[in-house]
Amino acid sequence: xxxxxxxxxxxxxxxxxxxxxxxxxxxxxxxxxxxxxxxxxxxxxxxxxxxxxxxxxxxxxxxxxxxxxxxxxxxxxxx
Length: 79
Known about the structure:
With 79 residues, this protein is mainly α.
C-alpha cells in the first residue's frame, strides 16, 4: 500500500491528546467500561469514525504516531 500525506493536520495539543488517549486505550489493565468514553473522545479528536479499526485490527499493529497519521488521511465521503 502506498503511503500518502495526511489530508488533515492536528495542532500539537490535539496530537498530544490523541497520543495520550491511544496509550490509555492500549493499556491491558484498562477496564472495558472505561474504554468506550476514551474511544469516543479519540474519534472526536481525530475525526475518524472507525479509529478502533486502526488501533486494534491492523496487521502489523500500527504504532501510536502511525495511528494518528493514518486517521489524518481519512476523508469522509460526501455524495
